[in-house]
Automatic annotation (TrEMBL):
Family: Belongs to the class I-like SAM-binding methyltransferase superfamily. RsmB/NOP family.
UniProt-recorded name of the protein: 16S rRNA (Cytosine967-C5)-methyltransferase
InterPro entries assigned: MeTrfase_RsmB-F_NOP2_cat, MeTrfase_RsmB-F_NOP2_dom, RCMT, RsmB-like_ferredoxin, SAM-dependent_MTases_sf
Pfam families referenced in this protein's UniProt entry, alphabetically: Methyltr_RsmB-F, RsmF-B_ferredox
Active-site residues annotated for this sequence: 353
Keyword annotations from UniProtKB, A to Z: Methyltransferase, RNA-binding, S-adenosyl-L-methionine, Transferase
Binding site for S-adenosyl-L-methionine: 255, 300
Length: 402
């Protein structure tokens, strides 16, 4: 592999912004990629993937490179040298890499890889929590969560179907694979910037992980029904619900952030969806008004996000155990309060992108045993694991109201 100094410098700068300035990895990378319009897709791919890889393995690489935070420029260059050596490439003859101890780097990897916290590059507290929550599954799961995420599209059934979208993508030189477990999904064979295609701007697809695509189907909304998507965010699942409902009926999409709902509205227009109404949750009034009126409720709850570490590797370094405790309290509050919108005979799905039982089964169980949950019955629940199912980790539980 031939390395270009300006691309590695861009990677070093992105890492500086992420590690030293606390910027989110995706935003820092987007900003750096705007630096030079002459960079082609390979150059951009190199910067993005190398940066993500070093963020993912920060603890491991920093230990091998023998550098500590806050990282100086030369420390960040050393992290890139460790990345190059461990990938099995030859180091370019640049000043920054002068005297790099290549054999020592390889030897140190063999030494530290026996320790899971080092090998998988995770904070101590996260490893302890993972073992407590998942027991022996944690080892395989965290290894799988450190893999690079695949890019998955969801064909927008309001405008196309999987087979014709697949064919149209070939015209854009984007090759994809289908998977019978995820009927609307197309999985890219190689990463590509699909957002630049006209197919995307025309609303023929959304980028949405395969696991996430199961959640709207799990609620099974029917055309003409009234559905509430309580934690709609920017609407990944709301748009899917709308497509399943063939634009008929009504979806009330709520969130506590107007900015996210604005983004949802923008996506709605592109997707050709017109049965979504957004409402900002400012007080309990909105929920009270909707009490007993909904055929279906989706609670895509805020969570630790540990199931989607493939997509957000910097969460390993930004998450704190105190935040997880706080978010668990919010999850139960949301279940207790929003469940009242479901009418008799209606369905509620509680979902998270976490693989920890304390955010999932335990929350559902606590709810069902509480007064608010007394009228609900658990129909089914399932967890998608990255190590077993191959995509992001998700949990979903479906409850029926008597
Ligand atoms: C997992 S994300 C939702 C992702 C979204 N459903 C999608 O598919 O793109 C959880 C969302 O819950 C919102 N949220 C946090 N606390 C909330 C609350 N008390 N009530 C409603 N939404 C809340 C967050 O702003 C966030 O957008």
């Amino acid at each position: 592999m031939r390395f270009h100094h300006n691309l590695v410098q861009a990677t070093v700068d992105a890492l500086h912004n992420i590690f030293n300035d606390g910027k989110y990895a995706d935003q820092a990378i987007q900003k750096i990629l705007k630096r030079d319009t002459r960079w082609g897709s390979r150059d951009r791919g190199f910067i993005a993937e190398t940066t993500y890889d070093i963020v993912r393995y920060k603890r491991l690489y920093a230990s091998i490179a023998n550098v500590n935070e806050p990282f100086k420029q030369e420390d960040l260059w050393r992290l890139t040298s460790v990345w190059i050596v461990l990938k099995g490439y030859d180091l370019p003859a640049w000043d920054e890499y002068y005297n790099t101890p290549v054999r020592r780097i390889r030897g140190k990897l063999d030494e530290v890889r026996k320790n899971r916290k080092m090998r998988e590059s995770i904070p101590d507290w996260m490893d302890e929590m993972g073992v407590k929550e998942l027991g022996s599954l944690w080892d395989q799961e965290i290894t799988a969560l450190n893999k690079q995420a695949s890019v998955v599209l969801r064909a927008n059934s309001l405008k196309t179907d999987v087979a014709s979208l697949k064919e149209k993508l070939v015209g854009e030189e984007v090759m994809t694979t289908t998977d019978e477990r995820f009927p609307d999904a197309l999985i890219l064979n190689e990463r590509a910037n699909v957002f630049r295609t006209k197919l995307f701007t025309d609303g023929l697809f959304e980028v949405q992980d395969a696991g996430s695509q199961l959640i709207a189907s799990y609620l099974d909304p029917k055309p003409g029904e009234r559905i509430m998507d309580a934690c709609a965010g920017a609407g990944g699942k709301t748009l899917h619900l709308a497509a399943m409902m063939e634009n008929k009926g009504q979806i009330i999409a709520t969130d506590i952030y107007q900015s996210k709902l604005n983004e949802l509205k923008r996506r709605t227009r592109r997707a050709g969806v017109h049965n979504i109404e957004t409402r900002l949750l400012e007080s309990t009034k909105t929920i009270k008004k909707l009490a007993g009126k909904m055929d279906g409720l989706l609670i895509d709850a805020p969570c630790s996000g540990l199931g989607v570490l493939r997509r957000n590797p910097d969460a390993k370094w930004k998450l704190q155990p105190e935040f997880i405790d706080k978010i668990k309290a919010t999850q139960q509050e949301i279940l207790q309060s929003y469940s009242r919108v479901v009418k008799s005979g209606g369905t509620m799905v509680y979902a998270t992108c976490s693989i920890f039982p304390s955010e999932n089964e335990v929350q559902v169980d606590t709810f069902l045993k509480s007064e608010a949950g007394a009228d609900f019955e658990l129909e089914d629940s399932q967890t998608l694991y990255a190590h077993r199912d191959g995509f992001d980790g998700f949990f979903m539980a479906r409850m029926k109201k008597k």
